[in-house]
Give the backbone structure.
Amino acid sequence: MTEVERFLLFNCVATYLELDGGAVKEFAELRAQYRKPEVEMSPITWEEKVEARGLERGLEAGMEKGLEKGLEKGLAKGKEAGMRDVLVRLLRSRFPGLPGQAIERIEAIRSPEELGSLADRLLTARSLEELGLA
């Protein structure tokens, strides 16, 4: 028998095998002997146990994926903020008296590509007008 067939057979027996007459009473008496008053557990099938384990694993995997995505987004935002800071420092160095309007424009940029392009143009630009920041 394959492992899947064994699982299905066990699940079927555990779920659907019903005790008759005297066996029900005998089973209840046996359970009562071993039952602790502070703990009351309802019977659970093998399938439900496997399902619960699968749910637990799924939740763990989801948490890991969520943390990973959050970290990636945080790193991307940090990178953008760092690029903006460097760009403003370079602009202040190249164009003393940099107006607040130019800084606001840079702070509004959310695209790393656009920030990179602005940094590239900064090397050859002769004025803030050429950069589109005047």
User: Anything to note?
Assistant: DSSP finds six helices and no strands in the chain. Residues 95 and 128 are 8 Å apart (CA to CA). The chain has a mean pLDDT of 81.
